[in-house]
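Handout, page 2. Input:
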Amino acid sequence: MQDFDVIVVGGGHAGVEAALAVARMGKRAGLVSMDAGKLALMSCNPAIGGIGKSQLVKEIDALGGLMGEAIDATGIQFRRLNLSRGPAVWSTRVQADRIGYNQYVVDRLEHHQNIEVVEGTVVAVSVESGKACGVVLENGEPLSSKAVVIASGTFLGGLIHIGEKQIRAGRMGEKAATELSENLSGLGFEVGRLKTGTPPRLDGDSIDWSKCERQEGEEPLPLFSYRSTRELFKQTPCHLTRTTEKTRAKVSANFEKSPIFSGQIKSTGPRYCPSIEDKFYRFKDKPSHQIFLEPEGNGTNEIYPNGFATALPEDVQREAIHTVTGLEEAVITQPGYAIEYDYCPAYQVDRSLETRVVKQLYFAGQINGTSGYEEAAALGLMAGVNAVLAIEGEPAFRLDRSQAYIGVMIDDLTTRSTTEPYRMFTSRAEYRLALREDNARDRLAGYAHQYGLISQSEFEIFQDMILNTENEVKKLRSTRVKVSRLTDLKVKITKKDKVSLADILKQPGIVLADILPLLNEFDSMFSEDREVLSRAAIQIRYQGYIDKQEREIQKFRKQEAVLIPSDFSYTDILGLKTEAREKLSRFRPGTLGQATRIEGVTAGDLAVLAVNLKRHNAKSGQ
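Output:
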């Protein structure tokens, strides 16, 4: 029997970050994967980031995680999104070399002294006295540990659908994990079913690129990780094309052949990443849909047609693809498919991701009902940290909605019924101006240092950045230029002879790039670090809005400070509506603030709950 401090089940993005977090905190991690060579393999789109998702990657990086560093090292195209809007929604997206990313992660884990990758399939969690104490492999071998993290992805009861054809698999060509679902159900967990899907892969040599719109990468490279450095290189272009009326006709004529519509699939798929069948069915008035042609990496001609996920039969897929502009002769190298898999609704975990049914057992990634590499990785990191804290007898690490997108996601999962795969968007975060890409380290580096997730030298580098940013803000506010010199800038400043650079930045339509020529005239007075300057410019430009949001956050934290004991009983509280009593008993909110976000709990219910909590605390002497 092999002994570990923490066993992580699953080698996807969640499992990798969980194992690395455990290892960085000085504990021995056993990562169980069916194939040690496929760690963090991108099963679907070959990219990291996007709107809302990039904020998660920045937070993972601030907490010492690997995802940002891995994509920076293996990205083939770098872009920033939403730059025409405010910094609250600025997002980064990087196209990956799919195999290169996988190899980078495998290499990092293979060489970590605190991680051992065990090839095998877990069929059961071992439990003693209500606590997880290891797992059992398919070959009967037991592995012991002090805590267990399950990060099973789509492998838990995975079933692939291509038309009427069904294949038991976790992803194409790899077997599913079926016995673990039965084991979890036997332990008392509610197990549900969700669906996701992927498009066919295409041979790039068979595409008529002249009919498609070319999309280039950006320079300088917008890197995710503060630990990354990378020289400029020739980025690989992506392309944009569209479906046609013929595509609509072909797909619509074959709705009944899709398992999504035939009744063969009964589970729910992601609302915000629908199949091509769903798109034509739900958006009947839309003449066409965008398809992004994304390379799967350097050294391969395989193309991922993002936006064409489908579970139609292979012959229909081929005919439908040939109706898309530029894809008239496209060769399909792998068919698209839908995949159903098991998950455990997240009301069964608390905000530490520890399950309520079994102590020191943690769920991370798609088992919680999420969808996406970034969401999975963030949950994996948090589960790994909390598993270590639990075995050390330390309080759990919990982030709330005002601190991080990670906190928003976990709060959403644990207070709301997950009936479809959860995907992160900036619109989910009510305090998104305070949760920007650029300030992830400001918010989280202190925690990373506290828990040993980053080194002392890394923390000191970040502290220097904070100090440098503050200095740049002071200099921008104190440096004044003559208004007469601003004729090239569209600024509305009157009755002044001179104006500060900070006041110029506050003008509508003015961005940092507009005042760089002015900064250059002051020799070495201003920093050459564009990141520091950008941080300072955001702070100046949006200070009023940031201050207003901070006041809102303070109000939010007052409700979050009212704790609800884990054993608090809602059964006998007079005045609570039946629905509220049932929902509160099911979701077990940790704070009064969390209770306000549970569907079906009214303002009247909250008032009754607040009074009863006060009485309970008075009796308990709290």
